[in-house]
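Students often ask why we bother encoding 3D structure as a string. The short answer is that it lets us treat folding as translation between two languages. Here is a chain of 363 residues written in the first language.
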Amino acid sequence: MKNICLSLLLSVGFLCGCPQEKNEPPIPVSLSRRELSIVKIAACTAIGDLSSLQEEFDTALNSGMSLNEIKEILIQMYAYCGFPRSLQSISTLMKVTEKRKASGISDTEGPQPATVPVDGKYAAGKAVLERLTGKPEQTPLSGANAFVPGIDIFLKEHLFADIFGRGILSDRERELATCAALSVTDFVEPMREAHYAMARNCGVSDETLAAAVAVAGECRSAFESGKSSAATPFALGNPGPREWFTGTVHVQNLVTPDEMENLYSVGQVTFEPKARTFWHTHPIGQVLLVLSGNGFYKEKNRPVRKLSAGDVVCIPKNVGHWHGAAPGSRFIHIAISNIADNSAAEWLDEVTETEYESVCSEK
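And here it is in the second language, the structure alphabet:
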């Protein structure tokens, strides 16, 4: 077996020599302190974790971010997770700043937003979008923009002209925040992948993007720990063993073997984006019931099967395989595992990045 602990540490990047606040978790090497705040504020806004937001607002302000920079993240978030989430986060920021002021802390207000000209906003927004994507927009319009032309106007004039045109945050920072928010939002895969590409075009490296998505996923996992979510009525469970899984995985035991005369067990497995099992086999097979998200099921020497909510996978006995989440999606399934000789599975080698990436590219 490979050293999974080390590989996970390197992929998420928690090996940094930067000075830290007391008791503050290490900063991933691919993210600056400022970027870490942007990612956490965006992710916590998207999932509605107001308690963690209070802590992150304090941390961000203490590390030198201005009030207007934080406000701008929350304005950006309204475009990607709605007014209710944004307004709740803004109200939380108000409470934090009032408390800090009462404690004698004077926070820097920071630069004021730019004024966006009223005339020519559609053209201005189109220019911003082309700057983000790095290519001219296709004409005539296609997809949703052609089907509902009004949304095309709102996107160009309001999102890309009014919001991106405010300044304060760079395109790179806005895309980093957007990617963090979309990475913890279900059923938005096309938009998520589009913004991942925009982030890269704005100078976000693959390492930084991976670290941002990992941090956002940890925010969501921490928030949902011990709670049910909209995707499942069951609790998140405990972290999956590192010798069985790559990435962030949680397992919730629902039916234990001793409750079923050691014939089978039932558990819920939650994979964060790109997380997956090792290669393994089952002595009498297994059944997977997919609850939410997008994922993969891969047998040796056979084409990948792409999975989504409602899919059922019947895994034959003694067939080498793995399963896990797609790059841009959290993935949850129920696993019904038959047991023979007190064993439900034989665990084999880790699924390498090359193996995983080849599955992602299969049509």
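Translate back mentally: The first strand starts at residue 238 and ends at 239. Keep this in mind for the problem set.
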